Each structure stands twice: as structure tokens, then as C-alpha cells.
Amino acid sequence: MSRATSTSLSADASTTRGERPGRRRGAGEGAASSRLLRRLLGPLHFSGVFWYRFHLFGVRVLPEPLKPPLMVLFALAFFVALGRIRRAVVHNLSWLTGGRRSRLAELRGAWRTILNLSWCLTETYEGLADGGAVEVETEGEEVWADLLSRPGGFVIVTAHVGHWEIGSRLGRTDRRVHVVRQAEMDPRSQRFLSRLLRERAGDRVVFHYAGQDDFTLGTRLLAALRRGEVVAMQADRVSRGGRSHWAPFLGNLLEMPLGPAALARVAEVPLVPIFVFRRGRGRSLVVIRPPIEVSRDAPREQAQRQTTERLAREIEAAVRRHPHQWFCFRDLWGRRPGS
Fold this sequence. Notes:
The protein has helices at 7-14, 27-41, 49-61, 67-81, 83-97, 103-130, 141-149, 187-201, 217-226, 259-267, 300-321; strands spanning 135-139, 154-158, 177-182, 205-210, 230-234, 244-249, 252-257, 271-280, 283-288. By secondary structure, the chain is of the alpha/beta class. The chain has two domains: 2-131, no CATH class; 135-324, no CATH class. α5 (83-97) packs across α6 (103-130). The chain is globular, with a radius of gyration of 19 Å.
């Protein structure tokens, strides 16, 4: 469960960006208290490097029969201890059901989500530790084949749904893949994970880190696309200082980055929504959606907003398909439907 202490839990739990419609008051105070807790706990904070090392050690030494009960144990500990995250999951999932579920059913849904995250992160670490094979089934194989038959590059967009670390599951291409990640909150965690990813990926996958004041990142990604390479980006979170658009999502509005649409438009390449769902122990379903072309006839801002709203619809469909693999741990709207 410790990898939940990385970008997925830590960035969601500690900060919110911008003024969301319906945002609860007191979010700033919560972020300040979270920062204080990080300073006090250091590497033992749930975003600290201790948990990264602990998780990697665990997947290397534990026999397989011990992993399922330990997943339940660690997931239960986090479920009980991280009340704000648990409540955020309950609130977010309520927008899928219209708020019509019982309290027990809501808690059960939050529990399933955190347990699923535990397994997704553990299987990611297993791949980093020993390159363990994952059984992959693909939906949309013909879309992928068509993309690879073209000489130009393309931008893969995904969200924090299922196995969102998709770079390791794109093995059937000899093209270089540039994966854009959010930097970890703890610099020591960032150095540890960055080294681990480089060692496992080799030359085929290149990792870039947003949110590190790297003003050349866009230029380098644009050059990669023009060489016919592939860029993979998250489309459901806004980097610090990034441009954003509030797109319709689950009957509300979700702040989404304009970066993927802007990059694809300048590079004149398509956006390809891809989601990787966990199907069981060591099994994944890769869903490749039809490419989205960014209009070059419409004004730039309009084209970017329209494309971002199409991406929001793709993410919403993925979330509705597997709601308990939607790993969003900040309370997006601060309220339930109808409140």
C-alpha cells in the first residue's frame, strides 16, 4: 500500500488547486496541517521515502501466499487512519450514484477503492523489482495497430484509473515512449523512484517530471512527437502553474489541464485515450480508445477547450466502467449531489 503514499495519495490529500465550484472552506487549513505533519514525520510520513523502500522490499521478499492478507491489512490500516481520504472517496463516488446509496454501501465502495489501489501499486512495484510479467488483454487492438502504421507520433492521455502507470504495458512498439509524471512531494522519494524507473525502463521509456520548474519540457516533448515518438500524459490533474479548463464531469465541473490538447495541436498529432484496468492478480485490460484530433480550424483556445471536454467524457466513461478503480483522493466538489 505504500506506493499510495506517492503522487496519488499525497498530492490529492494535501493540496487542492484553484477555486473549485462548491469547494469547502477550510481546505487551505487542511493543506497547511498536512505540510506540518510531513515536516514532523519526515521519511515516515505517508509520502516519505521509507514507505517506498518498504513496499519494494516487501514485494521482493514476501512469498505469494502472504501478499493477499497483507494487502488487506495495510489497506485496512490506511482506510481507518486516513479519514479525510476515505471521506473524499465516498463523496466523489456519490456523484456516480446520485447520492442514493446507504452509508454502509458508501463505506464499502471506499474500502474496495483503497484495496484496489493497494493491489495496483503492489503489482507496479513487482514489475519494477523483477520485471514480472503481467497478463495483458487489449480492447481496441486495431486502433493501436493503425497508430503504429503511421509515421507520426501521438499523445497518449490517461487518468488515475486502474493501472495508470501505463508505460510498462506498452511493450508492442519499438518507438520511444516519453512518460510525463508528477514529481513526488518528498525529494528523497522522488530521487528513489526516479532511479528505480530508469533502471527498469532502459532506453525505451523516458520519464519526465512536471512541476519542477522545467521550462524546456514542452519543447522537448514537441521535438519527440515530431520525431515520430510517443508521449504519455495524465489528463485529470493540473500541474502547478499550468493552464486549465473546467470541463463537465459527472454532472459537475472538473478542472483539467489544457496541456495535452495544446501539445497535440502544435505538434499536429492525435490524442489517444488509453486506460488500463486491473482484472485480477497479475492481469490487466488495456482499453485503447479512438484517436481525438484537435481542430486546427477553430481558434486555439476554443479548440483546446473542446478537446479537453472530449477527454473529460472519455475519463468519465472509464470511471463509470470501473468506479472502484478511480483513484482520486481529494474531495473534488466538497458536497454530495443535491446538497
